[in-house]
Write a structure and sequence with these properties.
The complex is a heterodimer. Chain A has one domain (about 20-155). Chain A is about 45% helix and about 5% strand. Chain A has nine helices and two strands, in the order αβαβααααααα. In chain A, strands 1-2 form a two-stranded antiparallel sheet. The two termini of chain A are about 35 Å apart. Chain B is α/β, with parallel strands linked by helices. In chain B, strand 6 (about 230-240) and strand 7 (about 245-250) form a beta hairpin. In chain B, helix 1 (about 20-30) packs parallel to helix 7 (about 215-220), helix 1 (about 20-30) runs parallel beside helix 12 and helix 6 (about 160-170) packs across helix 11 (about 420-435). Chain B is globular, with a radius of gyration of 22 Å. Classes of the chains: A mainly alpha, B alpha/beta.
């Protein structure tokens, strides 16, 4: 499994990226977002290699229907088209599956899935359950949305701890809303 | 480190370097026996372990293709990943959580204790707790198990605080930070636990016992161990008289090699061990090695498992500190009045955000799922693990339709839940939810089994050669110089995490092997 990493923030395009034909995704993190303090800039941007703008928009909207989080920035959902783009670039079958799947969603929504009303989107998604496209995107969402530093910050997971000495002196016993177990059940730490 | 010749037929060849193989290797090397260990995986270290769940999984897990069948949910959720075991030096002792519990005496007498349970292949073990006790003590001392050998218990983390208070409210009396092979203080040249929270990803402080940095370097220091990582055994060979003579393997350069042996000990975990016996079929042994009973691959056990995760209104941060931080042992007794035989343990568990998303409810989507993700910091978790029933039809077979990189059939793992397993899981889920509700859980969730971490029984131990594959010493009934040294030997699975008993049996087996060698019986 690949480890998704946050998209670079700040609107910079590399020379190689300028030659790519995929969508160029941008957005701005809300000032109140936990990620705004993490990122060097509130503006984020992603250059896709292959997937066009409309498919990318559909995939973001699809991911938001599957895994709705009230305040999760679009920058995190944008990891889904980014990671699927990488797979599509390596495998033409995946690229055509995404293209046809996105077209099916648009058809089911009676126009643009990405711009459809929430109830229309939900019905369209439910109608596609069990298809290869649905399974591809749903599976991708699990790693793309929840396995990156932005998600860690948003959901309050502290990630790697070894480099900070573990939690021995950083709150592994800091829960105060229940009484501490007696020492015979939970002896004192060694250090 | 020693280097032995491929034609040296005086060596003991051990296949696998985990709890069984790594321990046996060191025990034999300490007694002066020359050992070649063939390990399919690469050698990592505490320095190369990763505090990052998916990359660590890629580094350590056994990801070679496997197939599944049966009505267990793992076959639906993880059709090509029936087990969560490791392919690396140290085997699954790199990944294990460290829970080290002795069995009860009645668990070695499952048939006598539970009686005739329809649809099972229950048997008593051909050995007793009393016989194993001195070896349990040696294993506990070797591994530094807490609350044994003068080693203090570990401090409980936040996840344990929730479990402890819930257990007390429920009237349970046996709740503590348990018996763990994790240093509560510096010991045996290794650090005390730093409460890192990545026990499953390989312990970066070395506080958790793993053969990778205990048994194996100690064995290497004797000059009697030749460890060959990235060496995949394809076949065990035998002579006309039926004795095994060595193994054929693919080395780290992809080149086929043959290593001669006086004895072969197989410790490749309970899926690869029977697979290798079956893949070694010959004209003399058409059904595979050591398989005159037809029991090789059968009676596959994986423990009754499940998890309960609960959301609280206050923060928990379950991921901080040891993963298996505490245990409730009030449900481990055999009380058939609950509607099932055998018992189960309740052990804290935590998953980082990436694995919580992947394993909470595989395949799920929508707001019920995201509600748990949104409340990640407020979640406490426990794993439920109990004795599952051995069934003859739950088995590892060769899937001739799917071949591995070497052209050999991959293993298919078939498992149907027994109604006793289902009744126990229902009881355990109910109790786990009640425990959390007793301390104010806002909501609770029943997480289905993960891919099997406890794999047992596919070359089982029996008094009668017609009923099983090995005798009480792990020596195969059919071939005197072929031994099984992992959890495949298990006649039944008991409720306890299997590693301590695997290590115990390996220490005992080393005595058996050196005894037989000195008497020239093998």
């Amino acid at each position: 499994m690949e480890n998704a990493r946050p998209p670079s923030t700040g609107a910079t395009i590399t020379r190689g990226a300028a030659l790519r034909k995929g969508a160029y995704l941008t957005g701005t993190l809300a000032a109140a977002s936990a990620l705004a303090t993490l990122a060097p800039s509130r503006v984020w941007a992603l250059q896709l290699a292959l997937l066009p703008q409309d498919q990318s928009d559909t995939l973001v909207a699809f991911a938001q229907v599957l895994y709705p989080h009230a305040n999760l920035p679009t920058a995190v959902y944008a990891m889904v088209p980014k990671d699927l783009d990488a797979k599509a670039e390596k495998d033409p079958k995946t690229a055509s599956l995404i293209a046809s799947g996105c077209a099916d969603l648009d058809k089911a929504a009676g126009g643009s899935f990405a711009k459809a009303a929430p109830d229309v989107q939900l019905t369209a998604v439910k109608g596609g359950q069990g298809t290869d496209f649905f399974n591809l995107v749903r599976g991708q969402c699990i790693t793309s949305i929840y396995n990156n530093d932005m998600a860690f910050a948003h959901f309050g997971y502290q990630g790697a701890s070894w480099n900070q000495g573990g939690y021995l002196h950083r709150g592994f016993q800091d829960l105060t809303w229940l009484p501490n177990p007696p020492l015979d059940a939970s002896p004192k730490p060694w250090a | 480190m020693a280097k032995f010749s491929p034609s040296d037929d005086s060596v003991v060849v051990i296949i696998g370097s985990g709890a069984g193989g790594g321990t046996l290797a060191n025990e034999l090397a300490q007694k002066g026996v020359n050992v070649v260990v063939l390990e399919a995986g690469a050698r990592q270290s505490s320095a190369t372990f990763l505090n990052d769940e998916w990359p660590s999984f890629g580094q350590l897990a056994w990801l070679d293709k496997r197939t599944t069948s049966g009505n267990w949910r793992v076959a639906k959720d993880f059709p090509n990943l029936p087990a969560w075991t490791c392919k690396t030096v140290g085997g699954t002792t790199t990944h294990w959580a460290g829970a080290s519990l002795r069995w009860h005496d009645y668990e070695f007498k499952a048939k006598t204790t539970y009686g005739d349970v329809e649809g099972t292949s229950l048997m008593d073990w051909p050995l007793t707790l009393e016989e194993l006790e001195p070896y349990y003590a040696k294993a506990e001392h070797k591994m530094g198990v807490t609350r044994t050998s003068g080693v203090p218990g570990l401090p409980g983390n936040n996840n344990f605080k929730v479990m402890y208070n819930g257990a007390k409210k429920l009237g349970y009396t046996k709740c503590s930070t348990g018996h763990m092979a994790i240093n509560s203080h510096p010991r045996d040249g290794r650090s005390g636990c730093m409460q890192i929270g990545f026990c499953f990803q390989g312990c970066k402080s070395g506080a958790k016992w793993s053969t990778l940095y205990t048994e194996i370097p100690k064995a290497e220091a004797t000059g009697h161990l030749d460890l060959r990582p990235e060496s995949t055994v394809l076949q065990i060979e035998h002579n006309a008289a039926g004795k095994v003579t060595g193994v054929v393997y693919v080395d780290k350069n992809g080149k086929q090699q043959r290593q001669k042996a006086r004895i072969v000990a197989l410790a490749a975990n309970s899926i690869e061990t029977p697979r290798l016996l079956l893949n070694s079929a010959s004209s003399k042994y058409p059904d595979g090695l050591a398989n005159s009973s037809g029991q090789v691959g059968r009676n596959y056990m994986r423990h009754m498992t499940g998890s309960v995760y609960a959301i609280f209104s206050e923060p928990v941060h379950m991921y901080r500190g040891t993963t298996m931080a505490g245990i409730v042992q009030d449900e481990v007794e055999n009380k058939p009045s609950r509607g099932f035989v055998g018992g189960y343990e309740m052990e804290t568990i935590s998953l980082g955000l990436p694995f919580f998303a992947a394993f909470l409810d595989p395949g799920a989507w929508g707001s019920d799922f995201t509600h748990y993700m949104d409340n990640y910091q407020h979640v406490a978790g426990m794993w439920l693990v109990g004795e599952d029933m051995p069934q003859s039809t739950n088995r590892v077979t060769l899937n001739s339709d799917v071949k591995d990189d070497h052209g050999l059939p991959v293993p298919n793992v078939h498992y149907d839940d027994h109604k006793n397993d289902l009744a126990m899981r229902e009881h355990a889920f109910t109790q786990g939810e009640a425990l959390y509700k007793a301390v104010g859980a806002v909501s609770t969730f029943r997480t289905p089994p993960y891919p099997s971490t406890h794999n047992m029984g596919t070359s089982r131990m029996s008094a009668n050669p017609a009923d099983g594959v090995v005798n009480k010493w792990g020596q195969t009934h059919d071939i005197k110089n072929l031994f099984i040294s992992d959890g495949s030997q298990y006649t039944t699975g008991a409720a306890e995490n299997p590693t301590l008993t695997i290590v115990t049996l390996a220490i005992r087996q080393a005595d058996t092997i050196t005894g037989l060698m000195s008497k020239h019986e093998v």
